[in-house]
Design goal:
The structure is a homodimer. The first copy, chain A, has about 260 residues and is α+β, with helices and mostly antiparallel strands. Chain A folds into two domains: about 5-65, Winged helix-like DNA-binding domain superfamily/Winged helix DNA-binding domain (Arc Repressor Mutant, subunit A, Orthogonal Bundle), CATH 1.10.10.10; about 75-245, Beta-Lactamase. Helix content of chain A is about 40%, strand content about 20%. Chain A binds a DNA duplex (30 and 30 nucleotides) through helix 3. Chains A, B: GO terms for molecular function: DNA binding; DNA-binding transcription factor activity.
Chain lengths: ~260, ~260
Amino acid sequence: MIQSVDRAVRILTALQGARRMGLGELAAQLELAPSTVHGIVRTLLDHGMIAQERDSGRYRLGPATLRLGNVYLDTLELRSRSVPWAEDLAARTGMAVRTAVLLAGPGGDVIVVAHEPRPGGGRQMNEVGIVVPAHACALGKALLAFDPAGEPAFDTAGEPLRSMTGETITDPARLRTELAAIRRVGLATEAEEAVLGEYGLAAPVADHSGTIAGAIGLVVPQTEWPVGPGATDALRAAARSISRELGAPSWPPVVRDRPAASA
Amino acid sequence: MIQSVDRAVRILTALQGARRMGLGELAAQLELAPSTVHGIVRTLLDHGMIAQERDSGRYRLGPATLRLGNVYLDTLELRSRSVPWAEDLAARTGMAVRTAVLLAGPGGDVIVVAHEPRPGGGRQMNEVGIVVPAHACALGKALLAFDPAGEPAFDTAGEPLRSMTGETITDPARLRTELAAIRRVGLATEAEEAVLGEYGLAAPVADHSGTIAGAIGLVVPQTEWPVGPGATDALRAAARSISRELGAPSWPPVVRDRPAASA
DNA sequence: ATGGACGTTCGGCATAGTCGAAATGCGTTC
DNA sequence: GAACGCATTTCGACTATGCCGAACGTCCAT
């Protein structure tokens, strides 16, 4: 691990938490000398990865980050393959459809890479790029259940997981039990665990190597919960079809590595 | 300039040009030893800035880049201030509206940070994040004309600029003349210089320090060109209003630095 | 079965980055 | 209006860090 590169990414991550930061704030948060941070910041500045406010001297993220993120979306085959199926799903069920992938690093978050708005819902925010804790949403639980590296990620010595609402699962053991159930059924659910009044249903998507590439799911309003078998079957069919288009040999994806390391 | 951080950003930039690259390709493009690149790549991998295809071993951009880009958009006051005015402009003129900023680094590109689709145009691609050469679009010319650091950026010893269509201005001297005219009028135009059949009109937006923060412009179809005074005035009014909301002391922005260093 | 290509790992050397301290610029207070 | 204080920025020396060459393992194609 290259030290200075690691620090550079940490700086970007810090700036993505607090919108604007002074050099001193950054140095304090990374526990480094201000001059050390300055060298890295200067380099990122030259590439447009961060920008400096001309008057206050503080730093923000720069436009080059937007370019990177946009190219990532373009190169993501999961996204392009999902779009037609998401449109179909939204038309059939009348609900919004999200596609998401697991985000690396600590925290165990998922990030939405495609979003099909609810039909007839007027102007809706584009939700591509939003981040949700994995353990608190159906998409995240589908990803955690089938990703061999996902489940150990939140295995932080039994300390409670971050709570979003009163319904969020904060007990790692209980989450692990639910993930095992999701592996058997091939579908994950969410009941007001991330946002009050919002329910969800999600299914994993596999790629040509047989491992999980992402998850696709329905955003279900409270009045529609629980969903009928029609929506469930349509979602399962869409996930299977996308996986097949990506070259997956089977669906639901098989979880390799450790079949049952838990008690 | 920190060497390894600079190289890390170069790797990301290379990956944004070619969608997938092997380690050898990356090393060849950066003219470095493969093992050197590997260390940096490994670090970026751990942070999710890049991802590795499980079978081929090649590298792609990772989901963390999407998160960064999304946070950048959220923190951009230019964007949030532009949205209401862009909606109003689109409703008045019946055209799509784009807001863009100048992208740092070589090449002199602009990147779209907000996009209001043409009213009644059905499903349109979201153009946020697309990149256009600055000298080939109205938004870019508005930015170059009023950014003190913009004009010298393409001053590469008189060699011709990259051509997009037959109408693209490739002569730096001619571009400089046009930028001077834009500075006087406060509006930039574009006639099939980036995309055939597409015309454009753009105005600069200033921020509280008086310098240029971005540009807002209309995407004009061939049948609507040239636009009437109503659309021109509305665009100018929107640019002035956004600038005022950002705290700009004047509009059009004043170009400080060198008023006339050219011959 | 064998060759090649690619990603990956390891260790020594030297460069390149880190950190302290001083300098500059700016806003604020008295 | 002038001086204080904070913040970013610059500079220089030390040494820890990352760079590179070479060897290993693996996968694919022949």
